[in-house]
Structure formats: C-alpha cells, structure tokens
Amino acid sequence: MKQWITRQDGLEKLELVDTPEPSDLDDGDVLVKINCVSLNYRDTEVCSGTFGFHPSADRKDEPIVPCSDICGTVIKVSRNSAYQKGDRVMAIFKQSHLTGQMKEQDFESLLGAPLPGCLTQYRVFPSAGLVKVPQYLTDEEASTLPVAAVTAWMALNTFQPLGSPLKGRGKVVLIQGTGGVSVSALQMAHALQLTTIVTSSSDEKLKRAQQLGATYAINYKKNPDWHEAVLEMTDGKGADVVLECGGADTLAKSFKCVAFGGQISCVGYVSGKDASSQMNTNVLALSRNVTLKGIVCGPKDRFEEMLQLYQETEVHPVIDRTFEFLEAKTALRYLAEGGHMGKVVVKVA
Ligand SMILES: NC(=O)c1ccc[n+]([C@@H]2O[C@H](COP(=O)([O-])OP(=O)(O)OC[C@H]3O[C@@H](n4cnc5c(N)ncnc54)[C@H](OP(=O)(O)O)[C@@H]3O)[C@@H](O)[C@H]2O)c1
C-alpha cells in the first residue's frame, strides 16, 4: 500500500512511499480502509516542523505519517471488535480521550504526531478510537468532523453538561475567520439557534457565511476595530462565547468585546502565537470576570453528542475543495495558503 510520510522538515519534502499493508490485529482492533482524509492547519505545522506547543510533538527522529481526520470503512475485524465489516467510521483525534477533561497523557495519543497518522491507504485502530458515521453524510463530509467540528463543539459547550448544549438567540457567539473550525462552529451555532457574529478578511466569504446563517458579519481587514463593532451589534453587552482562532492579533480585542462573565475559548493562533506584548491578561480577565479556556479538541462522548445534532438537523459540512491522494502535497500547500473556506479533503480510496 501507499502512504505519505514527513520528517517534519518542510511541506515540500513530504514523500509518498510503499509499505506493507497492516495484517496483525490485537483483540478489539479493526483494519480500516481509508476513504477520505480532511486536512487541518495543524497538519501543515507538523509537516513543517512548527507544531510544538507540547513536548509530545517534538520527537522528530523518525519519519511519521501526518494527518488525523478520516472517514474509512472497516474491512477486517478481530475478536471483541465493536464494529463489523462494512461499517463506516471516523477516528477520534486523541485516541485515549474518551470522556471528561483532557489529561496531559492524552497528548501522547494524538493521531498524526506523536502517533502515526492517517494519510495512508489502510490503518489499524482500536475500536475505542473510532465512532460510527451518520448515514446521511458522505465520506468526504464525515472526514471533516473529528478535529474541526469537535473543537468547535467544545469551544461552545465545554462548560455545558453532556446532553445539554448551549441554545437560543439570547446567547451571542463571536466566530473568528472562516477556516475549518470556524465554519463548523457557525453551522452548529446556527442549528442551535444561537446569535452569531463572524469575522473574515474577505467580503465574499462573509456573504457565504451569511448564507450559512451568520446573524452579523464583520470584515476584520477593513475594520481593524472589529471588537467595537461587536459591542455595537450587541447593544454594548459583547459576546457570551468567543471562538478565539487568531491568537496574537486578536486576543486583546477578544477581551474587549467578550460579555461580562463570558468565555473566551482559545482554539488557535493563525495570526501568531505571542499576544503578550499587547495585553495584561490578569487585569483583563479580572475586570470583566472572564473565563479563558484552552480547547484541545474533545473527548469521544462529546463527539457522539455532537453527532446527534448533526443527525437531527442533517447539517452538511462545508467542503472547499477535494484533492486526489497523489495530490496530497498540493492539498496541504493549498490549506497553508489560507484561501479556502471550510474544509480541504484528500480522497484516498
Ligand atoms: N485547539 C484545537 O483543538 C484545534 C483544533 C483545530 C484547529 N485549531 C487551530 O485553530 C486555528 C484554525 O484552524 P483551522 O483548521 O480552522 O484553520 P484554517 O482552516 O486554516 O483557517 C484559518 C482561518 O483563520 C482566519 N484568520 C487568519 N488570520 C486571522 C485573524 N487575524 N483574525 C481572524 N481570523 C483570521 C482566516 O479566515 P478568513 O480567510 O475568513 O480571513 C483563515 O481562513 C489554527 O490555529 C489551528 O491550529 C485548534
């Protein structure tokens, strides 16, 4: 079989290699034929060697298969497997994180560094590391959910009890950008009837966001004081939840437009990692009684909780573009350039 490997030394050095198809299954394992892989910003960082916010990702001695998010079909089962041949499955990003708050050792179980990833034709998974695909979703659509959508779900619901997601027009969610996580957040927030404010560098993308249900839209390039626009749109109250994707350029402004007692869900850092020069976090957090929460995707049971909403509302994830398996390098480059809206998918089978 074929798989892509990286030595975490640059996207351009990603290499397609031949390797034996896996044949040994431990008790509970299944062999999955990978149908589609969706790409995340993190995958580009792993290939470039710049993902490094935890020591588990810093082992660069051996080449590794990148990427985490799949939809595949079970083609071989072992004793005590929870799946049958023919089942369509998605893999959970943190293979050991099944419920509750994340523990530090869960960092050891991330697919696509430090664990071998999924940009490959076949891969063995333990049953516990998989969830079933809702029937209405295509393989491409399902492959987009494990990281982007689950992260968005947790950004909204991390403090909500399981089974009781945030709901209703009275709650305002600020969503930064129109990448994979943000568009998933918009779609689920719309399905939950939350009020949404989306920011983007592109009027075109904002128009699309409004078609997807965004209540308000702000171009953050044309309006660098977007935090003030958020306050105006909410009659001075601010956003109850901020999906913080920007990092260095956005965090200080997020503090200025989060509601009193609100939550900033720190998800990413697409504009840079160091926001410290612009802000005094302790004073900002205190003065508006803000909760700042780091989100690292979510556990399996919250993924399944999210799938219930998808099932009930038949949300179709937004796919920007699909590439062939042999074009995986081009696909990762395309994602890294940032022109997309929603998810970029590589078709493997
Ligand atoms: N914590 C987690 O578990 C987790 C999971 C997934 C992703 N992430 C992180 O979350 C971030 C987004 O991931 P992704 O996969 O959605 O990335 P993506 O698909 O590459 O999207 C990135 C988007 O960020 C927007 N952006 C760039 N600079 C911005 C700024 N200054 N202010 C506001 N938006 C800005 C752009 O939107 P426009 O083109 O509309 O301007 C761009 O499309 C990344 O940092 C990623 O590492 C974290």
From TrEMBL:
Pfam families given in the database record: ADH_N, ADH_zinc_N
Lineage: superkingdom: Eukaryota
One annotated GO molecular function: oxidoreductase activity
Domain Enoyl reductase (ER): 10-346
Stored InterPro entries: ADH-like_C (IPR013149), ADH-like_N (IPR013154), ER (IPR020843), GroES-like_sf (IPR011032), NAD(P)-bd_dom_sf (IPR036291), Zinc_ADH-like (IPR052711)
Record SMART domains: PKS_ER
The protein, known as: Enoyl reductase (ER) domain-containing protein
